[in-house]
């Protein structure tokens, strides 16, 4: 589930905030162990940089100066490995978010590892500073890592660190901005723009092929209630995959979110607020559907009773949550046919394709 390491929909946000306040590491000791090792070319990279180094990256928390092409890249965020892999750059470490996929890389990206076996970090209690330092990185990528100033500074003492741009959300900022930051950091700015353009073109083609989507209202919800609430996505919070196809998101849900950029948590008595022409539930297994049907009056919603609700499988749910150029191509391939059925009132109440 999004924002969840232990499948609590907003759990990682809460835990990382607490961890950030408690961090008290001797950064000088960490950096000392990373200065002596000779950096070797990454044998798994398949492309060359098109930008000239050194490169300066402006971040929300400062600047990162990258003197030469990074060879040992550590991902401390939830989804950045997708962008690196599609750019032909293989990180030496990734961070587990959820799903327990091999090397924290999901099926739509697995082939791009090309046999590499990155170390998998755990961010449940915040970045593992000692383990990161022991990997001797020459670049740390955290554009989707929930970093704050203190954490960014500590990571920057280990290696140049790339975070979100100023003004973006700490988690799940605009995917285009994240892609540009990562691509620039590895010297592949033009290639990053190509990734963005490719996704935009694919959405435009899908929307043109399905004019029936235009103007239809839609809601996007997690796949099962958690601790008495159903977590749904206000307009603009990880909903581009629907609006770029022509749908209009259900309005007003942001008032049920604790903070801007977070999911809205709806109690059982408020579940009717998500009814729309189409509802997408990011279910991960068949049992999730019954959990939804047992939640308040959800089973009586017009979209649910009239075949206009979509239920994903676990991999498709993960692709929607990741919202990277690579995962969105998977979404277009596997979700659009389900949306066609939903608009026609023929969507099956199953996670199976």
Automatic annotation (TrEMBL):
Taking every annotated instance into account, which residue ranges of this chain make up the domain Fe/B12 periplasmic-binding? Answer: 72-343
A GO BP term here is: iron coordination entity transport
Q: Does the keyword Transport apply?
A: yes
Q: Name one GO cellular component term.
A: outer membrane-bounded periplasmic space
Name where it's found: Cell envelope
**InterPro entries, alphabetically?**
ABC_transptr_periplasmic_BD (IPR002491), Bact_iron-sidero_bind (IPR051313)
Signal peptide (residue range): 1-37
| Chief location of this protein within or outside the cell | other
UniProt keyword annotations, A-Z? Signal, Transport
Similarity comment: Belongs to the bacterial solute-binding protein 8 family.
- What is the protein named? ABC transporter substrate-binding protein
């Amino acid at each position: 589930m999004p924002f969840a390491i232990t499948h609590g929909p907003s759990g990682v946000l809460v835990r990382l905030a607490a961890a950030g306040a408690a961090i008290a590491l001797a950064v000088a000791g960490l950096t000392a162990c990373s200065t002596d090792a000779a950096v070797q070319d990454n044998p798994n990279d398949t492309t060359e940089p098109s930008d000239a180094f050194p490169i300066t990256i402006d971040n929300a928390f400062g600047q990162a100066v990258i003197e030469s092409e990074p060879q040992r890249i550590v991902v401390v965020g939830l989804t950045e490995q997708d962008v690196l892999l599609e750019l032909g750059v293989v990180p030496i470490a990734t961070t587990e978010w959820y799903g327990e996929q091999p090397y924290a890389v999901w099926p739509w990206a697995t082939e791009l590892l090309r046999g590499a076996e990155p170390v998998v970090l755990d961010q449940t209690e915040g970045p593992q500073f000692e383990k990161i330092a022991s990997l001797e990185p020459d670049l740390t990528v955290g554009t989707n890592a929930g970093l704050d100033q203190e954490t960014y500074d500590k990571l920057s003492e280990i290696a140049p660190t790339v975070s979100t741009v100023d003004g973006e959300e700490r988690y799940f900022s605009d995917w285009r901005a994240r892609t540009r930051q990562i691509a620039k950091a590895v010297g592949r700015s033009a290639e990053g723009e190509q990734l963005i353009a490719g996704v935009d073109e694919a959405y435009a083609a899908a929307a043109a092929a399905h004019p029936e989507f235009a103007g239809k209202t839609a809601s996007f919800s997690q796949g099962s209630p958690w601790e008495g609430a159903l977590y749904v996505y206000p307009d603009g919070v990880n909903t581009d995959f629907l609006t770029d196809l022509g749908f209009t998101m259900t309005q007003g849900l942001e008032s049920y979110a604790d903070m801007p950029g977070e999911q809205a948590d709806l109690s059982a008595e408020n579940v009717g607020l998500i009814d729309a022409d189409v509802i997408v539930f990011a279910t991960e297994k068949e049992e999730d559907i019954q959990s939804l049907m047992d939640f308040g009056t959800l089973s009586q919603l017009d979209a649910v009773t009239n075949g206009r609700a979509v239920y994903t499988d676990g991999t498709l749910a993960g692709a929607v949550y990741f919202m990277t150029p690579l995962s969105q191509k998977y979404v277009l391939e596997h979700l659009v046919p389900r949306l066609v059925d939903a608009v026609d009132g023929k969507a099956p109440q199953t996670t199976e394709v």
